[in-house]
Amino acid sequence: xxxxxxxxxxxxxLIWVSFxxxxxxxxxxxxDSQIAKYIDDSWTLLTRDNWLKCSVDPKLxxxxxxxxxxxxxxxxxxxxxxxxxxxxxxxxxLPEDARKIEKHGLxxxxxxxxxxxxxxxxxxxxDSYFIVLGLLESNRLTQAKQMIDNLIYELRHYGILxxxxxxxxxxxTQPPLLTEMILAYYRRDPDKVWxxxxxxxxxxxxxxxxxxxxxxxxxxxxxxxxxxxxxTPEESQEYYSKVLSYFKTHPTEGEGRDNSLFYDTNGxxxxxYIADRTIRESGFDITAKYGPFGIEILDFAAVDLNVLLYQMxxxxxxxxxxxxxxxxxxxxxxxxxxxAHQINQFLWDESTGYYLDYNFKQKKRKYYPYAxxxxxxxxxxxxxxxxxxxxxxxxxxxxxxxIVTSTHNSGLQWDYPFGWAPMQYFAxxxxxxxxxxxxxxEVAAKFMNTVKKEFEKDGAxxxxxxxxxxxxxxxxxxxxxYSTNEVGFGWTNGVYLVFSNFLKTHLN
Length: 508
Prior knowledge:
With 508 residues, the protein is mainly alpha-helical. The protein is built from 20 helices and 20 strands. Strands 3-2-4 form a three-stranded parallel sheet. A three-stranded antiparallel sheet has the order 12-15-16. Strands 1-5 form a two-stranded antiparallel ribbon. The chain is globular.
């Protein structure tokens, strides 16, 4: 169902913003003391620093806890670092062929890490960015660096920036924000020796995204494409049964798509499972913006991915400049310039004033208004004219509780009516970058008010929020996949702290 937005002009909207600023400024001169204490306590509670706490996986039912290590590590030395906890788990070397893993377990990381919370008891790739920002706001620099060093370890020893450090995530990554983390930490602790040590990992990560099957040579952009086969172990069988039932009752759908490519008499097909793993790799698990359950994601150059890769390339330039590598800095700048040009050529839609995902097989953009349209503002890719066009859509996205993820109610959690901390973050700092200062403050304040309202009710911070009704109650609105609203919560904590500092700095 398409949600019809309330139409009013951007000018009227901005006037309203300016008058409303006084209403919330006093409330956000500082973080509410209870929330500040909750977040600080959460960093400790969500830190995983022993094998028993790390190994427990709320998503799976297992008969033993296993920690898998790369063969470059010495198992006995690792166990001796924490012998009491080590006795309660099994240690084993990771098979060279991940398909030979009979029992899933934890993938070893050398440093303690902060998990998101709830059912997510691992270090996640793109969650880590917002957690690291929060740790830096909390002056927990050692923890922030450990998180980054763990991700670099993954690239060195597992060959990929893991979706998260479980064996069933091998071959699957998440949106690339590593260089942003590296620079955020470096700005607080300018250690050039450490910065230089990150270069091989950055090169590996960039190569991952710019070579087949993720590169799309015809348009000079990239796509999500996960490895692995079959059902994802972390998802319920009920979900896949519901998906199969949906396809059987919807054999064809929209624009002549043949859904029978994704199921047959034996059940869901291999193509479906690749797409299913890939939509999870995108971080938007699950949304309907690539068709039902994300089944067409393999055919798209996504706005979010390519903007983040552009930013990685700019970051690569900055890192090499800091290190005095002029030739390499120019190479990274050239990559960024080319990607920005391709983004504006293929992903910008002049007729609608949106950045839209591009179906490179059909050679056309898909109209599906999504909050990732504001990512190019965050990265500085949009022209002034494009920014003005995007601003006209703000009333469709900015609701009572913050930025809504999309304007479509699909029954999936990465669509209407939900708002997530990362979407607020990119929108706020995109608006701020282009001079829409009061609107940026308003978005940040609305989301903080949502977090604060639900905290006062439940004493907790959540994974996501219904930003239409301004509520953390989500279970009855999600029809597919897990419907719980996890408590913690890593990235919401981090973005709340960043927004609090942003408001405090600009409203005093």
